[in-house]
Protein: Streptomycin 6-kinase
Organism: Actinophytocola algeriensis
Amino acid sequence: MISLLDLEAITARLEPRFGKGAHRWVPKLPGRVAAIAQEWGLTVGAEFKSGNSSVVLRCDHASGPAILKLSPDSYAVREETEMLRQFAPSGRVPAVLAADRGAVLLEAVHPGALVEKLATPPTPEEYAAFLTDLHSSGDPDSAPRKLVDWLEVLFSSAAKRGADLTSSRALRDELLAEPTEDVLLHGDLHLGNVLTSDRKGLVAIDPMACVGDPCFDAVDYVLEGLDRAEMLRRRDALAAAAGVDAGRLDAWCRVTAPIGATHVSNPGHSAELAAFGRGEY
């Protein structure tokens, strides 16, 4: 299966992120995968759908089904590996089975359905338990960045897509000025980064870890409600189930809603997110 990698398609997918670096890295990929497979005792299978920063392959390992992830960005892979190990005591992330420069082997999550694709989303109680477990593990001092710095990255990207962030920036500053408990945050907990597991319940993947207010990791569950009533229902129920301040969760939702409004493809959902960000409800 290694020889069946579509190197042309992989190059086209990675080029927007890595430029000429993708053209240097991709031709070496089959040899790299073959060497890792021999070293780690893997039977490599089909390529798994992934984004524009990595190549992800299904494989079999002595411990069972696994996922091999490789990227030209070895620093990002190392950071992800370290943060998954930080979150490991929570039982809410895939186990790291092996790691090397630019590559990491993770246990496969079964059934591994994306929560954003589920016909029935997790209940607020289920999601609150997931967040509580995740935030109860890991050393905040190990975080590679602060929440304020990660927000600047998100704001910068959203501004290029036309987001109005005037209110978001002001409200962010108010929230950050208030003392609160800091935890190790996943940092990018949209529901495409949350999978279903028959052993672990909800499982988080692809952390962009940072240190900050635990409410921040809760906002996507709220904002991925498709209409106003569902967003408000999720906000209030999740705050109660997780034991977090509902006003603070609402404020973080209003900070990030304009960012989400530039991402979603559903025009009605985008309009609702923009209205949430403007404080219309």
User: Anything to note?
Assistant: The mean pLDDT is 95. The longest helix spans residues 246-261.
